[in-house]
Amino acid sequence: MSLAPAPLKVYPAYARMGIPGAINECHLREGVYRRLLAVARALPAGLTLLVLDGWRPWRVQEYLFEALSEAIREIHPAISDAELLEHTREFVALPSQSADAPSPHLTGGAVDVTLCDADGLPLPMGTLFDAALPTSHTAAFEHRTELNDDERAARDNRRLLYHAMTAQGFTNLPSEWWHFDFGDQLWAHYSGQGQALYGPAELDSIESRWRRQLQQQAQDRDGR
Q1: What is the spatial distance between Cα 114 and Cα 82, in angstroms, rounded to a whole number?
Q2: Which residues touch 56 (CB under 8 Å, ≥6 apart)?
Q3: What is the DSSP letter of 103?
Q4: Contacts of 96 (CB under 8 A, 6+ apart)
Q5: What pLDDT is stored for residue 126 in this prediction?
Q6: Which residue stretches of the chain are H helix?
Q7: By the 8 A CB rule, do 129 and 112 touch?
Q8: 133 Cβ partners below 8 Å, 6+ apart?
Q9: Do strands 48-53 and 8-10 pair parallel, antiparallel, or not at all (unpaired)?
Q10: DSSP string spanning 121-133?
Q11: Distance (Å, rounded) from C-alpha 33 to C-alpha 28?
């Protein structure tokens, strides 16, 4: 499902950043899309839900994983391979097309979101979207005894986003305040479900649609 009518806003962040292979749209599973609409309509007056990323091509996932891994290695040249993998996976999932363990964004069930004010400006959340920092953890400001005004505002905005999303069945990735899931393996893990609802997905093209139609036509003919 491609986004979006009001009350959703869309800013395809990776395409705007010029990430190789990123698409200038946000696509999601229909069930995820409908839940986002419910989230947006339940927000306090004057606030809007801004979608930053949804379904993500595998090559974009690969680029993000390799780029962050290289940046960590550059800053910490003595880091072990195991530590490098752990630190990279804290913020970017392994690029995988496996039916058993696909990258969450490849399923169309993962979505990156934030909140906007009445003028369409993002609310302060404490970090930028996709910041690979400890303060990106959803609960980063929850356990501090002293907060300045900016940190208090970020904490309250994160709480609002978190509770609005989870009220519609989403789960949150604890290391990223912006990342929520429905129907994918992360959702199954954090919600205690036995299995995911969604596997890896690809955008439907006219070529794939024709191929399916011709295959079905051949099967119908052979079955006569």
Answers
A1: 32
A2: 14, 22, 103, 105, 106, 110
A3: -
A4: 102, 103, 106
A5: 97
A6: 13-17, 30-42, 58-75, 81-89, 149-166, 185-191, 206-222
A7: yes
A8: 127
A9: parallel
A10: PBPP-SS-TT--S
A11: 6
DSSP label at residue 165: H
In degrees, rounded to 5, the angle at the alpha carbon of residue 112 between the alpha carbons of residues 84 and 90 is 15
Taking the C-alpha atoms of 114, 115, 121 and 126 in order, what is their torsion angle to the nearest 10 degrees?
Answer: -70
Backbone angles phi, psi at 111, to 5 degrees: -145, 140
Q: Tell me: the pLDDT tens digits for 180-222?
A: 999 999 999 999 998 999 999 987 766 667 777 888 788 877 7
CA 169 to CA 33: how far, in whole Å?
Answer: 12
Count other C-beta atoms under 10 Å from residue 50's C-beta. Answer: 23
22 cis-preceded (ω within 30 degrees of 0): no
Which residues in the chain land under pLDDT 70? Answer: 1-6, 205-208, 223-224
Q: Which residue has the tokens 């069945």?
A: 169
Q: pTM of the entire structure?
A: 0.88
| CA distance to 154, 159, 175, per residue, from 141 (Å) | 8, 10, 13
Rg (CA), the chain: 19
DSSP letter assigned to residue 44: P
Contact (Cβ atoms closer than 8 angstroms) between residue 35 and residue 170 = yes
